[in-house]
Amino acid sequence: MKPTFIYLLSYGFITAYTLSSGQAQDSSAVETRNAIFAGGCFWCIQPAFDKAKGVVKTVVGYTGGTEPNPTYELVLSEKTGYRESLQITYDPAKISYDQLLDIYWRQIDPTQADGQFTDIGPSYRAAIFYGNDDEKKIAEASKEKLARSGKFHKPIVTEILPAMKFYPAEAYHQKYYQQNPEHFEAFEKGSGRISFQKKTWEK
C-alpha cells in the first residue's frame, strides 16, 4: 500500500504540473493591439494610460514623418512632420479602443490646433493615428460625441490620420514621470495642462 500511495502522490504532482504549464501557455498567448495618439508633450499623456487596466505597455516616440530614425533634436526642428506620440499596447479583451479614446480626450485640449498648452509647434499637434477602417470610424464617432457633449465652446480640431511608422524615443524620455518626478510635475503644472483638466473634467 505504501508504494501505491507514493505513486499516486507523484502522479498527482505531475498532473498538476502539466495543467499549470498549460495554463501558463494559454495566458502568454494574449492577443494585443497597438494604438497611437499624439497629444503634445509625450511625457504628459503617458501616465494616464499606464494606469489603465488592460494596457500592457506604453512607449513614447515619434510618428507622422518620413525621414528614417528621427531624433528628439530633429523632431524639435519642426522640419520633419513628426509629432511627439505615444504607442499603447493593449489587451482588447480588457479595454476597448473606444475606452482608450475616452482617456485620450481627457489628456488634451482638443480645441487647440497649434500644439498643446504652452508647447507650440507642429511636433506638438494632437492627432489620433488609426490603423484600420474600424479604428477610423470609432475615432470619428468619438470625436463627434465629444463635440456634442457641451464640454467645449470651440470646434474640436484634433486630427484623425492614418497611422505611419512609429519610432520609439530615446531612453531618457521613457517613463519620464518616473525617472524625474519633480521636474515632470513642475512642467505639467506650469504648462497649464493640469488646471485645464480640472476645469474641464472635474465639474
Quickly describe the structure.
This protein is of the alpha+beta class and 203 residues long.
Structural commentary:
- This protein is an alpha+beta fold and 203 residues long.
- The protein has a single domain, classed as Peptide Methionine Sulfoxide Reductase, Chain A.
- Helix content is 44%, strand content 18%.
- The protein has helices spanning 2-28, 42-50, 72-76, 97-105, 133-148, 176-179, 181-190, 193-201, and strands spanning 33-38, 55-63, 83-90, 115-116, 119-120, 127-130, 159-162, 167-168.
- The strands form two sheets. Strands 7-6-1-3-2-8 form a six-stranded mixed β-sheet, with helices on one face.
List the helices and strands and how they pair.
Blueprint: H1 2-28, E1 33-38, H2 42-50, E2 55-63, H3 72-76, E3 83-90, H4 97-105, E4 115-116, E5 119-120, E6 127-130, H5 133-148, E7 159-162, E8 167-168, H6 176-179, H7 181-190, H8 193-201
Parallel strand pairs: 6-7
Antiparallel strand pairs: 1-3, 1-6, 2-3, 2-8, 4-5
Helix pairs in contact: 4-5
Question: Oligomeric form of this entry?
Answer: single chain
- Note the gap between the termini: 73 Å
Helix content: 40-55%
Helical stretch count? 8
Low-confidence segments: 1-27
CATH superfamily: Peptide methionine sulphoxide reductase MsrA
* CATH topology grouping: Peptide Methionine Sulfoxide Reductase, Chain A
Number of domains: 1
CATH class: Alpha Beta
Indicate the mean pLDDT. 88
* Strand line-up of the largest beta sheet: 7-6-1-3-2-8
CATH architecture: 2-Layer Sandwich
Beta-strand residue percentage: 15-25%
Shape: globular
Structural class: alpha+beta
Number of strands: 8
Could you tell me the radius of gyration in angstroms?
Answer: 22 Å
